[in-house]
Amino acid sequence: MKLKRIYFSLVLLFALSGSCVLAAVVTVAVDHPGAQINPAMWGVFFEDINFGADGGLYAEMVKNASFEFPQPLMGWSIPAENAPTTRLAVLTESSDGGAKGHFLRLESSGESGAVDNEGFRGIGVKAGNTYDFSVEVRGAPGLALRVDLCAPSGAVMASARIKGWGSAWTERKAVLVGSHTEPRARLRLTLEGTGSADLDHVSLFPRKTWKQRPAGLRADMVQALADLGPGFLRFPGGCIVEGSRLELRYQWKKTIGPVESRPLLFNRWNAEFKHRPTPDYYQTFGLGFYEYFILCEDLGAEPLPILNCGMACQFNSGELVPLNQLDPYIQDALDLIDFANAPVDTPWGARRAELGHPAPFHMKMLGVGNEQWGPQYFERYTKFSETLRARHPEISLVAAAGPELDDERYKYAWPRLRQLKADIVDEHCYAKPEWFFDNAHRYDSYERNGPKVFMGEYAAQSVGVVSPDNKNTLRCALAEAAFMTGLERNADVVRMASYAPLFAHADAWQWTPNLIWVNNLQTLGTPSYHVQRLFARNRGDRVLPVTLNGMSPDEQKRLYSSAAFDDTTGEIILKLVNARSAETKSVIELTGVGHVYRGTLTVMHADDVESVNSFENPSQVAPTQTAFSPGGPKFELTLPANSFSVVRLGVAP
Ligand code: AHR
Predict the structure, then answer these.
(1) Which of 44, 45, 46, 47 has most ligand 1 atoms within 8 Å of CB, for mutation?
(2) 3-state SS string over 51-93?
(3) What percent of the chain has pLDDT over 90?
(4) What is the dihedral of CA 524, 525, 526, 527, to 10 degrees?
């Protein structure tokens, strides 16, 4: 049945040798291995966009947990039934022990007073799962605080009671267990009795975080990343690195240490798109630079931090740091290298050890600016690179080539980057699927001896760039797969690539398409996700030349392939994209191979090229795998219409 579904067929070799065979002949020159493929070739780009970190990967379930949002009661409200007896006030305290900045005074003038937190578009609770609550509290003794998780109907799904505080700030904890599954629960805090209590740093985490770390990351989202097998993790963005103004830029030093002391920052995606406003989007940095490095370690991914280069986002203010005031920015880069790599007897190495990681993080790459362009960028990049190269020649610097391929900004950048002998150049490309199909051979003719390419952000846009109507269709995924065969074939020039953006919350996104969609309970891999996973999990170590013949150029127009040799398993890995609307017979020929003793075929396809995955039907477009016996170094394979196939072949001379 499976075999039938994937349209796979083998026929005897003699049947293929007649002149009437109308098939694509795919020849893999196994005896002519080419460039080494970077082990970190296929990675991920993470940015706190679409609720990627707050409300996403960072598993804190309480929004505005410390009342530090500019509207300090955003996310908090009084339940209707408690309105007559409840008063809320947000007060400010400077240096009193325990609280920082704002805190909430919850006052009850009757039997009880209550306040709800709405979470991030609700709180996802699973039946039987445990949730850890904590709060800093002070006030008159004798009162109690009931902590409930409530369904939208008001039904209580989990409950606990906290007592025993006095006039000094003290931390109190409670454990809640969900009685049933609910994606949009609320947290309710009810002060029992008459009087008031001060509350700060209200927190709720699922017990089941990634690797069970307290106050950690959402396990299912990290698992989706781990399943991808990324070679690197680029963080923390994206435009948030730049900020819409310089004072709103990302500053890594403010994202380490106790979570409560990491200052809140406006998220640039809060107000970026008028058609997708997200007024409750702020960065709490619960996922900060230390956590990013740990995540890289967990995933076995090379860390690739991107730092602000003294420029705010050029799509916004484009604010500049004067060149003679750039030193603190460069110092941030030097300190980051020490924080990641220096021994523990240095100040920044000691800081890393104090946070719990004495061993270095082995950072090898650093990005200078995100998506910058123009002369002002190169003035600043030059200063960074002069200092960093002199002090840290072991670190490869990633330079920007602007937001688009082949436009004036890009054409201005490349000659300068060559002149500056840049190590790696970060290219970005958001375009229609046709562009990706048409540009699958783009890198075949790139200059081989200059800087290497990092295709740092790319994604096929079904409607148009930043259109809210873009969908993660199979067509988009096939276009990306076609393009990626070109990246792989040119692995001597293209060293790394990452799809962007990575995550999006289904109820809180600003940008579409995205690789992985989530809601408060589930993650969803798009067809593009499967393409990324198949490439990363079938990377190979050396490029093998492939030629496509046997059909007219027109018929072959939407066929793409690349091949690699896996040094560890001794397998040939062949990737084939059939973006035609008809199934295509192919003849696979391996030159320089005597025996093919094993084959595995993984195919992803759908009849309708506009198919998408959804939370209701998550596997509408998903790969299926089967084993087969190729019989020898020449065999037939039928490629279904609208398909991406990965063939692994165990070979012997
Ligand atoms: O991936 C979304 C945005 O696209 C990134 O933040 C930015 O670098 C690019 O413009």
Answers:
(1) 47
(2) CCCECCCECCCCCCCCCCCCCCCCCEECCHHHHHHEEEEEEEE
(3) 93
(4) -150
CA-nearest residue for atom 5, ligand 1, is 238
* pTM exceeds 0.70, yes or no: yes
For ligand 1, atom 2, which residue shows the shortest CA distance? 501
Q: Which residue has the tokens 């009661």?
A: 73
Catalytic residue among 136, 182, 272, 371: 371
Q: What is the pLDDT of residues 22-44, one digit of tens each?
A: 699 999 999 999 999 999 999 99
Cα separation, 196 vs 53, whole angstroms: 33
Is residue 371 among the annotated active site residues?
Answer: yes
- 101: helix, strand or coil: strand
Within a 10 A sphere around the Cβ of 519, how many other Cβ atoms?
17
Task: Quickly list H helices, 314-449.
Answer: 327-341, 347-354, 375-391, 408-419, 433-438
Q: What is the mean pLDDT of the chain?
A: 95
Instruction: Give residue-wise pLDDT tens across range 599-625.
Output: 999 999 999 999 999 999 999 999 999
Task: Find tokens 């004036």 and name the residue.
Answer: 408
235, 314, 428, best to mutate for ligand 1 pocket (most atoms within 8 Å of CB): 428
Among the listed residues 135, 160, 137, the one whose alpha carbon sits nearest the alpha carbon of residue 148 = 160
